[in-house]
Every structure is written in structure tokens, then in C-alpha cells.
Amino acid sequence: MLASSSKSHASTPDEVVVACEQDFKPYSFLDDYGRPAGFCVEIITAVAGAMDIPIRIVHGTWDSVWNGLVEGRYDVLPIVAKLPSRLPYVDFSLSHTETFDAFIVRSGDPLIKDVRGARGKEILVLRSDAAHHALLERNFEGKIIPVDKASEMVRLLASGKHDAILFPKLLGIMLVNDLGISGLKVGPTIPDHLRDFAFAVKKGDAELLEKLNQGLLIVKSNGEYDRIYEKWLGYADPWLKYKKYFWHIAAILAAAAIVTIISIFMLRRIVKERTAELAEKNQLLSHEIAERMRAEDELIKAQKLESLGVFAGGIAHDFNNLLQAITNSIRA
Predict the structure, then answer these.
(1) What is the residue range of 127's domain?
(2) Which residues are bridge partners to 21 per DSSP?
(3) pTM of the model
(4) Whose CA is closest to 12, among 53, 59, 45, 60?
């Protein structure tokens, strides 16, 4: 596979020319050395590698790369929002990412929560971008200000010109932070402004489209997609950032839960056995106490009878003595 950032459009017969935006960070942009970089650049490179597709990467503004694809000068754009209005001109692969749009405004201005809230305002958009097309298709009741670069939109708004920017929320946050521009804030996501991103190929290029779809499935199944996503977009998606630790933590928690359940079961069993033993001992003790009390009662009764016998014997003796005295007296 061949990858280059050259802007020359000449290519070998088997070479696929991939055209990337140069100002759509973190999806596609030029790094400090002027080379194409970003999530989509790495994804298309991984997909091409999985399918043994030789590619050459060129770059330009969004408007230029889009028109170049439609006119047949390029073979693939790695990131294009799927819109019904674009279907007559290109064919789309399976989706690789999704994002929602939001309005970016100056800090002192109220947030714009939906397109209706932007009526009568001047809205900055990237020329020929999904936001540009969406506003045109909805007959937006305001003024659309198309520009060629995303960074230019941010600088214009920060300088006090126009009212807002319509742009993907995640990209807007990253762009404002990277440019170090203060005094701007990003509003809530617009529910009906979902961008479904995919690869786009020249209309009718079914063979290349099928290869890209297969390659995308391969990189998603072998973990390469997650690695690239985490690298470029992971900070905005904490789940993917910590996903690799999830199963380890889940296994530890599951093991701890099993040990706890077994411990509780064994403890209950021991308590039950001990309780049964105590109940048996209590029963024996109760029986022993009853026997002892019965023996004590018998002893008391015997002692009473013995005392009664002694008393009766004493009375009989005294009576005999008295009787003997009376008898002796009569005889005399």
C-alpha cells in the first residue's frame, strides 16, 4: 500500500486516490509537517491495508475535494456525511462514525438550541458541508455565510462578525480549544442534525465500494478501529477509553460476588448447624433440669414422710409411757 500527501493528482492505473480535508480536525487535517492526519486518514489507511488496496492521499479544502470526487478526479473521500441530496452524485459505504451538530455562539449571546432559534441570524458554515446543505434544503430563514476553512469560521465569529457557527459539536469544541480562542461557547446538540459519516466513492464504483465495506468490517472486528477511535476521539467517549479495563474489573467484581455468595451460604449453613446443636443441647438440658426438679420433689416428700414418722413415733412413745403410768396406778 502506498500513502502520500502529495497534491499531485496523477496516479497509476491500480492506485486509488484518497482526497482528505485539510481543516476538519480531528477527522482530517494537516499535521505540523503538512501531512494528512486524523481519524479518517488512519481509518482509510487501515481499511486499504486490510484489502491490499494501493492508495495515495491528497488534500484540499472540503469544497475542492467534494467537487473533485463528483467530477471523477478522486476515487474516495474518507469522511462524508450521508445526505439524500448527495446520493445522485456519489455512493456511500457503511457508516464509520456519527456526530450531532450544534451552534457555536459568543459567550455573551444566548445559546441557540435549534434551527428555528437561528431565524434571522447570520450563520457561518463550511462551504458545501452537511450543515450548508441542510440549511439550504430547509429554506433557512436567515443568512448563510459559507467559508472554506473551519478555523476561519471560528476566527470570524470570535472577532464579532456574524452570529453563530453550525458545526459538529465535538469538532467545534476541539477546534475552539486547539485554536486557543476564548469568548465562544458551544450550545446543545440539535436532535435532527445527526451526521452519519461514511466513505464516499465515485458514483457506480461498486467494486471499490465493496472492498471498502469489507475492509471496514475487518478493522472493526480485529480491534484496529477501536484503537484508532480511542486515539483521536476517545477523550470525548469515556466508555471507549476505559473499555479495555472493563472486563478485567467485571471479572474481579464477579469473582468477589461469587466468593461473597459462597461465604454467605457457608455461613448460613454453619449457623443452621450450630443452631440445631444448641437446640438439641437446650432440649437435653431442659430434660435434665426437669429430672433434677422431680428428684428434688421426691426427696422433699421423703424427708417430710420421715419427719412425720419420727413425730408419730414420739407421740406413740409418750402415749405408751402415759398408759403404763395409768396401768401401774390402777394396780396399786
Answers:
(1) 16-236
(2) 60
(3) 0.64
(4) 53
Which cell numbers in the block locate residue 114? 435549534
Strands 194-202 and 90-106: antiparallel
| Helix, strand, coil percent content, the chain, rounded in steps of 5 | 55, 20, 25
- What gap in Å lies between CA 63 and CA 152, rounded to an integer? 14
State the pLDDT at residue 6: 40
Q: For the chain, which ranges sit under pLDDT 70?
A: 1-13, 235-248, 331-332
- What is d(CA 40, CA 26) in angstroms, rounded to the nearest whole number? 8
Please check whether residues 105 and 180 belong to one and the same domain.
yes
How would DSSP label each residue in 114-136? SSGGGTTSEEEEETTSHHHHHHH
Q: Which of 213, 236, 259 is the last residue of a domain?
A: 236
Task: Please state the domain count of the chain.
Answer: 2
Q: Nearest to residue 69, comparing CAs of 163, 203, 192, 171?
A: 203
- Whether 7 is in a domain gets the answer no
SS3 79: strand
Which amino acid does the sequence have at 323?
Answer: L
What letter represents residue 66's amino acid? Answer: W
The answer to whether the bond into 54 is cis (omega within 30° of 0) is no
Nearest to 5 by CA among 60, 76, 43, 72: 60
Task: For the beta carbon of residue 285, count every other beta carbon within 10 angstroms.
Answer: 11
Closest CA to 9 of 57, 48, 46: 57
